Amino acid sequence: DNVATLHLIINSLTTYYVDADGDGYDAGSGSFCLASAPSGYSATTSGTDCNDLVYSSTNTCSSIVNLKLNIQGYYDADAHAMRAVMANQGVGSSTTDVDDVTVELRDSSTSALVASATARLHTDGTATATFGTAPSGSFYIAVKHRNAIQTWSSAPQTVGATPLTYDFTTAANKAYGDNMVELESGVYGFYIGDL
Question: pTM of the predicted model, to two decimals?
Fold first, then answer.
């Protein structure tokens, strides 16, 4: 009888994985065998969770910030778009590439750098910054360009598993301190240095 009971207990044990945020993706560590799942653990493993403190139905291991911005001096008011500066300089063959910008996420309280990514700016003003560390929270968006004034969002923005879209072009007050120039009626851009 004791052998049969022991055999039944051994066969009913399951391996559980750390799943602190309960999204079905495990943290890839702390697995152990028990008869039932304790809190914060899952019996299934859908792959290692890139951030086990933030629920994600897709286990997105990056945070995406979609930006729209213009740079004074690159902007052509007649075309209502920026020039293909990279192609004009003989860099690449794309007729929509303007330049690369550095996009930083800054802590909303301390302004400390949290994450940084490089994004390609296109003639229509769009740029996509992908942060591989999957930062999540409220951050100022700071944009740096090699020949423009560093410009921050007017207020902290929520960044996380859902892509954020932020448009600097619609008003001067989209930038901290209203620090943008009107390029044409209702269209704003970052101040540029010497070309």
Answer: 0.72
